[in-house]
Amino acid sequence: MKRKFYLLPIILLFLVLLPCCKTVYSTSEVNYVSGDEQTVTVRAIGYGKDEEKAKINAEQKVFDVLFFRGLPNSKQKLPIIGSNENEEKGKNKKYFEDFYNGYRYKTFIMSSIPVGNVVNVKGGQKMLTVDVKVNLSALRRDLETFNVIRKFGY
């Protein structure tokens, strides 16, 4: 009977600490609008403390979806890089730091047009919907140049 009481605190501790280890992924909220082999236009929803940060968030979500998820109903159905986001970002850490934090991704955006007004959401956050047109062919060449992807595929 005493053994059961020793196991109970261990089990409770395990159950309390288990949720701390989960990785939380943000929702992408990116939808295909139009495109061809060279470009793609998508509508993305971004969140931030102000309009500019919300726009940056929406633009970065577009690239996350293109790199690691793909866009259904478009010519870019498969992810450009692969579906294991954490592994790929770990292998090419410098590239992704420059790409996102150094704002290199903006060189592949042909246009980024807000499609409505900024909306206030919970916690003082702002939400903005943006139509983003991306130069896919230049993006693929850049990924090949920096050896993030091989030529003609993964």
Structure explained in plain terms:
By secondary structure, this protein is α+β, with helices and mostly antiparallel strands. It has one domain (25-145). The chain is 39% helix and 22% strand. The chain has helices at residues 2-17, 51-68, 85-91, 93-101, 136-145; strands at 30-35, 39-48, 109-114, 119-120, 126-135. Strands 1, 2, 3, 4 and 5 form a five-stranded antiparallel β-sheet that branches. The chain is globular.
Which SSEs are present, and which pair or pack?
Elements: H1 2-17, E1 30-35, E2 39-48, H2 51-68, H3 85-91, H4 93-101, E3 109-114, E4 119-120, E5 126-135, H5 136-145
Antiparallel strand pairs: 1-2, 2-5, 3-5, 4-5
Mean pLDDT: 86
Unreliable stretches (pLDDT < 50, length at least 5) are 21-25
- Number of helical stretches of at least 4 residues: 5
Strand content: 15-25%
Residues in helices, as a percent range: 25-40%
Rg: 20 Å
Outline of the structure:
The chain has helices at residues 2-17, 51-68, 85-91, 93-101, 136-145, and strands at 30-35, 39-48, 109-114, 119-120, 126-135.
What attributes does this structure have?
alpha+beta, 5 strands
